[in-house]
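Subject: design request, 165 residues
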């Protein structure tokens, strides 16, 4: 049905990642769809070119940031042997201008402190913002997933594995 609607002959592939999550992948080439997507702000390499948060209603901003995070963010954890506890970090990649705006929104909405932005060594123009600390990440999690119905399951689950001490 999906293939018929888009008028594509290519196959849709199903695979399972290392965490056991299923995903579907398909590739297609349709100039009209590409033009329409570009016209609506969807294009390749947005991490290196997007400089402004779109002018959308405040009650939708967490959904926008969550969607961007799902594409260009990560959340990781590690065990710190020094003080015998689990540590967590959330990162988002993008242009410096864009991430400064994201940071301003997160700090305001989540009541957290600003963090330093870092250039990504291997890619010119790419910057990284990271937040650490269980309390901060729980605040960010609650903001990002408030009233959400669409998200990447494995990132959602990683966020919700973070528990207060």
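Subject: RE: design request

Done. Sequence follows.
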């Amino acid at each position: 049905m999906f293939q018929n609607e888009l008028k594509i002959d290519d196959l849709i592939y199903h695979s399972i990642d290392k965490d056991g999550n299923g995903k579907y992948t398909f590739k297609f080439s349709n100039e009209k769809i590409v033009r329409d997507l570009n016209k609506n702000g969807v294009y390749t390499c947005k991490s290196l070119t997007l400089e402004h948060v779109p002018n959308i209603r405040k009650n939708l901003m967490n959904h926008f940031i969550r969607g961007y995070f799902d594409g260009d963010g990560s959340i990781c954890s590690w065990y710190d042997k020094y003080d015998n506890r689990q540590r967590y970090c959330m990162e988002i990649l993008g242009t410096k201008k864009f991430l400064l705006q994201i940071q301003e929104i997160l700090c305001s909405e989540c009541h957290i402190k600003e963090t330093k932005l870092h250039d990504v060594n291997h890619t010119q123009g790419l910057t990284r913002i990271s937040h650490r600390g269980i309390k901060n990440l729980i605040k960010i999690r609650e903001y990002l997933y408030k009233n959400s119905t669409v998200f990447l399951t494995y990132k959602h689950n990683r966020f919700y594995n973070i528990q207060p001490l």
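The chain has seven helices and six strands.
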